[in-house]
Design a protein that fits this description.
The protein has 279 residues and is of the alpha/beta class. It has a single domain, classed as Rossmann fold (3-Layer(aba) Sandwich). It is built from 7 helices and 9 strands, in the order E-H-E-H-E-H-E-H-E-H-E-E-H-E-H-E. The protein has a 7-stranded parallel beta sheet, with helices on both faces. The protein has a two-stranded parallel sheet with strand order 7-8.
């Protein structure tokens, strides 16, 4: 039997009786967030592409004594975002938390090397997933008069070698700040976490899973430039000088989704250092 999903919860039960929809909940930050919120009492609905990883997380939650449903599908498509929220409503009758964690950079290369197909794939994965899921969840939150949405940006919004991904995540910042003002009077809060580089030890699904677009082979000089950039970024922009852990990002997401953040909306929280946007 699984006795503890996230020891960092320290006995907190901030989500007892609540329902949390976690996109990208099969691995990495998404899986850590699903475990953290389940540890604190939430019923979990995972939206993901991959059955194996999603069911693994779901099984751990159920073995712990929690409740978890899984909805499989590409959330960059509106119909799948609708189906995810419908699964949550059919199973539990409400949606209290939406954590939009699905996404992540696919390629790391100079902008001029991106093909139009690659650019579209990056935007689909890291912007449209959040846009469609916010739109699909919102009517249910409005009807119940409450809800908390946490989107995921990145410190890489001001970085190099990931221009389409950076643009997609900057779009999530705009989604957050604008939607927060629009729905605050309806009892719904919208915030954003901007992680620095984060370790995902449980990753089994490659970043290009399901994309079907090959990356070009990079010349040695660009690979060397990338390595130098990564090293410099870690030493100059991340005060702790290390990559974050998934559970550290999940703790920040849990805070913003919880009642402890009841007077916080429209904010972007940088977790690990780095400036998530230049204004």
């Amino acid at each position: 039997m699984v006795k503890v999903l996230d020891p960092g919860a320290a006995g907190a039960r901030r989500f007892a009786g609540q329902v949390a929809v976690i996109t990208g909940g099969g691995q990495g930050i998404g899986a850590a967030t699903a475990r953290r919120l389940a540890q604190e009492g939430a019923a979990i609905v995972i939206g993901d592409l991959v059955a194996e990883t999603s069911q693994r997380v779901g099984a751990a939650i159920r073995e712990f004594g929690g409740s978890c449903e899984v909805s499989l599908g590409d959330l960059s498509q509106w119909e799948n975002a609708q189906a995810l929220m419908a699964t949550a409503m059919a199973a539990y009758g409400r949606i209290d938390v939406l954590a939009n964690i699905a996404g992540g950079t696919i390629w790391f290369q100079s902008f001029q090397r991106y093909t139009p197909e690659q650019i579209r794939a990056e935007i689909d994965r890291s912007f449209w997933t959040a846009m469609w899921c916010c739109r699909a969840a919102l009517p249910y939150m409005i009807e119940q008069g409450s809800g908390a949405i946490v989107n995921i940006a990145t410190h890489a919004v001001t970085g190099r070698f990931r221009v389409p991904y950076a643009a997609a995540k900057a779009g999530q910042i705009g989604l957050t700040t604008s939607l927060a003002r629009e729905v605050a009077h309806l009892g719904i809060r919208v915030n954003c976490v901007a992680p620095s580089g984060t370790v995902a030890d449980d990753r089994v699904t490659p970043r290009d899973y399901g994309v079907g677009v090959a990356a070009p082979e990079l010349p040695p000089e660009e690979l060397a430039d990338q390595e130098q950039y990564r090293s410099a970024t870690r030493s100059s922009e991340i005060p702790m000088g290390r990559r974050g852990e998934a559970h550290e990002q999940a703790a920040a997401i849990a805070f913003l989704a919880s009642g402890d953040a009841s007077y916080i909306t429209g904010q972007v929280l940088a977790v690990g250092g780095g400036q998530p946007y230049p204004f």
